[in-house]
Amino acid sequence: MTSITKSQNQIRLTADPHKPLSPAIYPTSVFLFENTAELIDFVEAKSPDRFEYARYGNPTRRAMEYVLAELEGAEDAVLCASGMAACTMPVLALLQNGDHLIFTSDSYLKTRTFIEKTLPAFGIATTIVEPDIQAVEAAIRPETKLVFTEMPTNPLYRVIDLEGLTSLCRKRGLISMIDSTLASPVNLNPIRHGADLVVHSMTKYFAGQNDLIAGGVAGRKDLVSQVRDRIGELGAILPAQECYRLYMSTKTMQLRVERQNATTLALAEYLEGHARIRKVYHPMLASNVDAEQARRYLRGGGCLFTIDIDGGFDQMRAFCDATKVFRIGPSFGSPESLLDPPVIMSHWNVAPEQRAAMGITDSMVRISVGLEDVNELKADLDQALQKAF
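Structure tokens predicted for Cys/Met metabolism pyridoxal-phosphate-dependent protein:
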């Protein structure tokens, strides 16, 4: 990964003739032209670095897009209104009626809902497979156009053979798209392993404060250009003020993520040996089914891990209710540590047999680790487990 500070310094020196330390905020919806000749030049150039109407682009947004592209080693990048927009806009931009998409299981439920329930209305067929190369290859059809996977996946942290996947996609003429939200550019750069596109919910590690919603897409310039057009067409834009705040918070992302990597792994290793824990899911644990792939591709495991508590639903609830430092809430990547029981938070309305097929149990808790002291967090988990039984 390119140093975050270095990448932002480079953008600062090249994107604005005044070379400000921080990007300027352009709170305008309209950009003017001196005359029709300038307007014609703009229309013919079709450059994302020139602006007319803020739904299609803004200098503040463009500054942060350069940073995202630099961090991911991408030809170009575009920001959008949310992580869900980052996942959905490329699909809606690149696929059409009659196309087929392959998506891997163990994923963010809302993404899977979009793929399984929304895309068929557009005439786009989908297949959900396990996150391994053989399953993906077996699902390819003549009409397949895009393969989409998370890395790591959520909430069981599967790690696919990324270079194997991107090599397969290139060989078969398919677009590869990786949701790298759980990793962040600090821990993984999918494009450097051959991916065509990488998407992020920048609400998480980039923003890092639980105070704004944002998404981003980086990758091949020709693909990003199509995604940018669709974002402008559907209005899924990120306002200039939010782009500025995202730019500023990204400056500390590397420091935050590296600390969260270390604290999270320490807690996961500790709880793996706890008598009241049935199983711990973390990409860097030796017990992880894809541990070899994780060590090969990831520089760190991120701030998430999942535990399956001994007992059942009642013990899980008692554990969550007994914590003092950890709070109950969704999302991750923030300074505050959070607990997310998926059976309630995200899968409450999913049929039990379908939850079981997804690997979600009644006693499972996804843990997002913040920036608190590791010993304080360990003590809190310990006392909560004691009270749960």
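The chain has a mean pLDDT of 95.
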